[in-house]
Structure formats: structure tokens, C-alpha cells
Amino acid sequence: MIIDINFIGLIIASIMASAVPLILASCGELITERSGVLNLGVEGMMIIGAISGFALMTVTGSLIIAVFGAMLAGVLISTIFAFLTQTLITNHVATGLALTIFGIGISAMIGKNFVGIPGKEFPVLFEGLKDTIPLLGPILFGHSIVFYFAFSLPFITSYFLKKTKIGLIVRAVGDSPESASNQGINVRLVRYACILYGGAMSGLAGAYLSMIYTPQWIENMTGGRGWIALALVVFSTWNPIKILIGAMIFGGLTIIQFHMQAIGVRIPVQFLTALPYIVTIIVLVVISRDSRKIRLSTPSSLGKSFHKDN
Amino acid sequence: MHKFLIRSFVSSLVLLFTLTVAAVAKDVKAAFVYIGPTGDHGWTYQHDVGRKAVEAAGFKTTYVEGVPESADAERVLRQLANSGHDVIFTTSFGYMNPTNKVAKEFPNVKFEHATGYKREHPNVSTYAARFYEGRTILGTIAGTMTKSNVIGYVASFPIPEVIRGINSFTLAAQKVNPNIKTKIVWAFTWYDPGKEAEAAKALIDQGADVIAQHTDSTAIVQMAEKAGVYAFGQASDMDKFAPKAVLTSVENNWGPYYVDRVKAVANGTWSQKDTWHGIGDGMVVISDLDSQMPADLRSKVKKLQADLASGKVHSFTGPIYDQKGNLMVAEGKTADDGMLAGMMTYVKGVEGDIPK
Q1: Global pTM?
Q2: Where in the sequence is the domain holding B151, given as residue range(s)?
Q3: Measured between beta carbons, which residues in chain B are less than 8 angstroms from residue A263?
Q4: Structure ipTM over 0.85, yes or no
Q5: CB–CB of A218 and B222 under 8 A?
Q6: Which chain B residues touch A118 with a CB distance below 8 Å?
């Protein structure tokens, strides 16, 4: 087989397209976790975003309403989580798991009427420029607006956390809610906002799947991508730029494997499916060997409830 | 007055008939056990279309969806048998042992198991469809329509059902175009739109201009539509998902069989059977042929369809060789059902190995 340069461009472009939902959900969850909240409901929020986006697109016919509606749906469902964990001080892990189960169930219920309906075509940008540059053409051009947004999000997130005052407040709340509270920061408000933002990004990730990547609705269509996004946050050691790299690796595994199959090289599929989690565990082991590194990268109060009167 | 009498006589007949049907409907209750959600627009969805046909024929039905192929299945079956269902359809291969086990405990309840081969008790029947006949038609179309001579095939799991489909498809494609190459990618899933789309994209990037699938979602035909190549619908008519890409679909049509069997239970004529129906019996249906196909291809396909239905043509007619060149089916012979049911070797012309 002749491997030409455009072929490599095509493969990279498909890997990037598959990385989009992972980047969106992970960057959202990263902000949530940076504020000290562990929301395991990413899969649930994603699937709610997927059905909401698809349903709104079918009913209203407007892609803009559908995309923002999906984000709003993500916000709404994460409000439940925020209310439970921040106002009623429930356990983060249990509440997050419940959110995922709830999301999968309710999306299936709403989705009953939307099965078997083809999605609408989502417009892509710079389609005409695709063939102008070899290799880079298919990588850079001919994608949806959500694609470009996803690939700029890690940089925006990184800038936000490092260079802005609000970003600093988020990190302060995540590292030491007590000190932040003593400084006059409303810890609960900051955490609420971070949870809702995470919900919006997960909702958008879901809408990308049901409206752009595979434009249709079927039950359980997120297929565990929410869990990969969660693993990705840990893999990245809470660094947005590393999320970008991790999403390309995690998203690219299946695509590379399919290409290898088509060429005639075989790798055990079960191994590849497990690989993102194995890599995450390895990263966890590596970073936990160095206590200084943990302190630098992990939000210290992650997953711990904060009682103001403490 | 005369007219009025006739009219009232006719209407009372109709009423009587309706009442009789209603009485029958009250008598027999059918239950369906599904592996997936009815919202999958694939395997389970088509079984549910069949269930609705039973309902439309005047019988009461219930279904349980998303039943795992484990001890849970036994529990569900026992519950259905206990709650007054007369016939229970178990619609996935993995329900084979639970079905037979529970059937022993409820000799008065009829059990119908899809795609299995165990009938350990007189109240267990099995049924399956000869989907490979549909794939003979798809192969013929693919071999004719390809320009790159590379045909992509997204497969699910290496089981006889899928291998048989690949073989049937490839044999038919080679017959019309000896230069074609079938590239197979195993997705190791029946249902994951994202993965299926990625598998199709990989094949398209590697030069395939016709994509066949043995997974259930519509993601593959949509990907083909986007990339401007041809594809075929699986399980249901997928034309509306990709009007330009889909040349035709192979539909699973369980309705007539289900209605037949439930009626047999109602009439007391039900007996144990092993059913393997194809195009001829209407269990495998070929959707409308797309007008992008040249007229002579369309008429050729129509004829092939009729010949498969009448039994004049068999998908596996010798000489057929395996990949190593060993004779599988001698010239003039056709593969028997035993060979088809256990088919785990590729025929000559399929590239690569069957994954373990």
C-alpha cells in the first residue's frame, strides 16, 4: 500500500474529530474539579446533551437553538448535582454516579420518539480550502464550528486558570476552601458556577455526538465517552494542554486500530479498549510517587464537602 | 326496508366477527424478550416491529427490553411464564440455555428462540433468517458499482452468522467482478455509532468506494453519504438516513412469522419447529433499489432475488474454495445447512484472518 501524505492528513483529521467530545467534556470537568468538586456524572450530562440537542434540532429545525439548548440542558441537570452536593452537602461520588444513571435513563425515555429520524446536516467551515494544502488541508479545514471551539478550549482554559483573577479564585477554592472563605470568597457560589459550566461543556460534547459526529439519536450513544473524559482529566494531571494530547491519544486508538486492520495488522481489540484506563492508572501511579507533584497538580480539596460553618 | 335488513345483517356479522377476534385476543398472550432497547433502530427495533404486527393481528403482547444474557434472563422468563403468557419469544442467541432451562419448568408455555439451535424440550422452537441470501444481492451490487475495486466491510464479531455473510457477499461480488478486494474491519460491537462511523471512515480513507456493514446503527451509511461513497442499509430500510449513499437495504422481517406462530398457539396447532427462512418466505426483504444503479443491474438484481426466492440459485454454489485453496463445496453442489450454520472459515478472495 502506498501511504501518501494526504492519507496521513485524513487519518489525523478523523482522530481530531473523534477527540472533540473528549476535549469538551474534559475541559468542563477540569474546571469543576479545580474548584474542588468531583462530578462523576459526565456520562449522564453528555447523554442528556445528546438527546436535548437532537430533539431540539428535530422539533425547532434550528441548529443554533439545538446547540445552546443542549448546553442549557447540561446546565440544568448539573444544577441538580450542585444543589445536592453544595446545598445539601451530599457525597460527591455517590451523587455523581446517581446523576449518570439518571441521565442515561431519562434520555432513553425522552428519546423514544426520536429514534429512526435522520439528523440534519451541520454546516462545515472552509470546505473549499481542504484540497489547497497537502497534509494540512484536511486537518485544518472543513470542520464544524464546534470542532474549532473544542481545539481552542484547552488554551482558553489554561489562560483562564493561570492568568485571570477568576481563574485564581477557582483554584483557591479548590485548594483550600477554608482559606478562600476566610478571604471573603463565596465558596459555594464559585463551586455552583464551576459545576454548571462543567454541565454546559458536557452537554455540548453530547450535542456534538448526536448532531455532528453521528447525526442521529439512539439510546446510550455516548458509549462510555464520559468515563474516558473523566479519566482524561486525571491523565492530564489537571492541565488543560495535556487534555488536548490525551484526547488525541485516547480518541485515536480506535481509529489507528481500524486502519491497521484494513491494512492487515491485528492488535487485540479488548486490550485497546482497556488502554485509556490502563494508561490513566499508570499516570496515577507515577504522579503519586512524587508527593510534591501531587500537591502542585491535584486540587487539594477534590471531592471533599465544604461546610461553611466549620 | 329490504336494504335496511341487509345492512343490519351485514353489520351484525361484522360485529360478531369483531367479538370473536376480541375473544381470541383475550385468550393468547405473547411475550418478547429483547437484548437491547427497542430504540436501537436495528436488531431489537425490528423484532419490536414484528411484535406490533402480532398486536395488530388482535393478540395481547408484552415485552421486556435490555435483558442481559445471564441468570437475569432466566428470572425474566420465569416471571413471564408465571404471569400467564402462552408463548414467549427470546430474541437473542445468548438466551439459548435460559430458554431451554425455563421451558422444562413450564411445559404448557411455548418458547420460541431466535438464532439458536437447542430444542431440548417439545415446547421449544427455534427460528432464524437466511440473511446471507440478502448479502448475495448486496455483493452483486457492490461488485458492479465499485470503481476502485476496493469494497469495505464493517463486521461485528467473528461468529458463523457474520463469517457466512462475508463469504456470501464476497462470492457474489467476485462473480460479477473478479478484480474486487474485500477489506474487512472488525468493530467488535453490534451497536456503537461512533465506533462504526470511525471504522467506515478508515475503510473509505483506504480507498473503499462501497461499504457493507454487519453492525446495526445508521452511522455507517451516514458516513458514506458524507464521503460520497455507496453503502447498504442493515436490518431496516436506512435510505432516509443517506439517500445518495444507500443503494438498497436488507430488512429483517419477523412480523409474518410471529403472527403465524401466535395464531398457531391460539388454534392449538403449534408444534416444535426449526425455521430458517430467507427471501422466499419473506423473512429477508430487499428494500427498493436505488435509481442510481443502471437499469440492467436493477433487472439483474430483481431476477437474482426471484431465483434466490425460488431456490433456483443458492448463495453457496460450488465450486467454493477456502483461503488456502481447499475445496469447500464441490462443483454443482450447494452448501448444506449444517455447513452454513458452523461456517468459520473465509472463502478464497477474502483478505486477512478471522480474529480470535
Answers
A1: 0.84
A2: 131-251+316-341
A3: 206
A4: no
A5: no
A6: 218, 222, 240-242
